[in-house]
Design brief:
This protein has 129 residues and is an alpha/beta fold. The protein contains seven helices and five strands, in the order H-H-E-E-E-H-E-H-H-E-H-H.
């Protein structure tokens, strides 16, 4: 089981245990590109919590534009796993929302730094620089 699946199971369990979590509005941006990816923005009392930042810069920009329509502040960005479809647009999100805190597991951070899983190299071959 990947960290993402573990996180999804934990969040589902929390939503079932705390029904109010199930009532939080969620906005989704799905890229139209082949090998589509999703960005989720969960509305909380503090502002939007974004999960996954798209694979490419251009799709990250489109996701931001779509989610900004909510008029809510971005307060946090979650990178659930070290796959490029979850962190490829992180720099674009950070530039747009420098105050937002970024959350990721230590294993995810280490993999992003070292490309230990080969995800960055693989995406570079498929998409270019």
């Amino acid at each position: 089981m990947t960290p993402f699946h573990s996180t999804a199971i934990a969040l589902t369990a929390m939503a079932l245990a705390v029904p109010a979590l199930a009532d939080l509005p969620v906005h989704v941006y799905s890229s139209p590109d082949p090998d589509s990816t999703n960005t989720f923005a969960v509305e909380t009392g503090a502002g939007l919590v974004v999960i996954s930042t798209q694979r490419t810069f251009s799709q990250a920009e489109r996701a931001i534009a779509r989610i900004e329509r909510t008029g809510r502040d971005f307060v946090a960005i979650v990178v659930p796993v070290p796959h490029t479809d979850h962190f490829g647009g992180l720099g674009v999100f950070r530039a747009a929302f420098p105050e937002a805190t970024v959350y990721a597991a230590e294993e995810t951070i280490e993999s992003m730094r070292t490309d230990s899983g080969g995800y960055i190299a693989s995406r570079g071959e498929a998409l270019g620089a």
